[in-house]
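Box S2. Input/output pair 1.
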Amino acid sequence: MKRTIQHQLYYPHPPEEVWEWLTRSELIAQWLMPNDFQPEVGREFQFTTRPMPQFEFDGHIFCQVLEIDPCRKLIYSWKGGPGDGSFNLDSVVSFTLIPKEQGTELLLEHSGMMENINIYNAMNIGWLKNIQKILDLIHAPEQTTKRN
């Protein structure tokens, strides 16, 4: 059985501002991981983090942008594995932004998770913490502009 991670979070900011945190490489690096993301359909990119041998993960996540609807939706593939050319995680990440009164609701869905409950639990907690980081960072614009 494939599992899906789903989280929903409200940001008291317009969709355009939240969108920047999902599509600018230097901002993504602040809440998720170092990357070479570019918001172009078909673009292949990578995230890098520390290896986690207990999950047969070498620290490299291979992605490809599948869909972009500016300030509304971003979808990309998400693949990772032990580093031998095989993938034990072949999934899709989707961000949907819904304008709300005085803010934006962000829906995150990571679908196609493997049956391994340990990987699922770790990523489920990780995604929630990471999208909450956006909320903290977006409230500290003076810090983010100094890094740009």
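Box S3. Input/output pair 2.
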Amino acid sequence: MNQIRVTKEFRFEAAHALMGYDGPCKNVHGHSYELSVTVIGPPVTDRSSVKLGMVMDFGDLKRIIKKHIVDPFDHALLLNEDMPAQELQRLGEPFTNVLFLPYQPTSENFLVDFAKRIGDLLPPGIKLHSLRLRETANSYAEWFASDN
């Protein structure tokens, strides 16, 4: 069976602050995130299918990622829900789109979250292969299914 990987890239803007961090990232700051989503599976061989030759329609993948990751995270302030209430109020007060997360809002933890959100939404026979989240021009984190 031929297994092919296909990748779709996404961009979103978000701000975050790291609870308890000992550097400048404890303050609210933003990133232009770039997310690469790679899925793996066999190309459709059914000649009667409109998806003939495709592993997965890029448009279908786009709809999943947009709905479950880009739309909720884009232009949001991302904060750890365990941050002390006083700090949450101070940081979140001027913002109208605050997403409280059950984890420290790092690129590494975003990828764990994103993998969980995406995994069960893919068509039968298609698996999430990897994710790459670029936080800056020279810094990114990666998640691979084979490592988990």
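Caption for Box S3: The chain has a mean pLDDT of 94. The radius of gyration is 18 Å.
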